[in-house]
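User: Hey, quick favor. My workstation is busy. Could you predict this chain's structure for me?
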Amino acid sequence: MVKISKQLEQMAHKVAYLVKSYPEHKIGQITTLIQAPAIVINCSLWAAQDLGFISEPDPKTGMTKLLKDPTGLEMGEGLAELKMLLTLAFTHLAKRETDLEEHYISQWTQGFTAHDVLIALKQLQEEKVLAEYLIEDGKETYTFFTLYENREKLWGRAQFKKDPLATDKDEKADK
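Assistant: No problem, here it is.
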């Protein structure tokens, strides 16, 4: 077996984490979440298999099974830095009673790989640092993120011209 680099091992850990986070996804769907050159994606999958984290994909279904939980595994300094940046940003946004919708997060995190942003947000939710909530305005559903301790405040409501969560009772009280 070829000795793999620390960077490839970290990518294998990320692959295992994605398989854990999306057990309903086929391997093709997992690979679309990874933003990297094809050789890195393929080698990351193979390394995750060689390290015993995931099974080989079932040839009939395309499903891959998680064999070893990647929780606590090293996923690299870039991911740790991103988690710290997100935590710091949301701490300061909370002072303004502001939550971010997922499209704003993607704009704020441009330059980071999409899979690192996805993993960082999921891990911060698992660690109860961040929380996610949905707001529907009758046409679309918006996903907002906030500090876990502020999850009930729904500050994302303020980003709409008309509060989509207001009830008839609320509207009558405003008049």
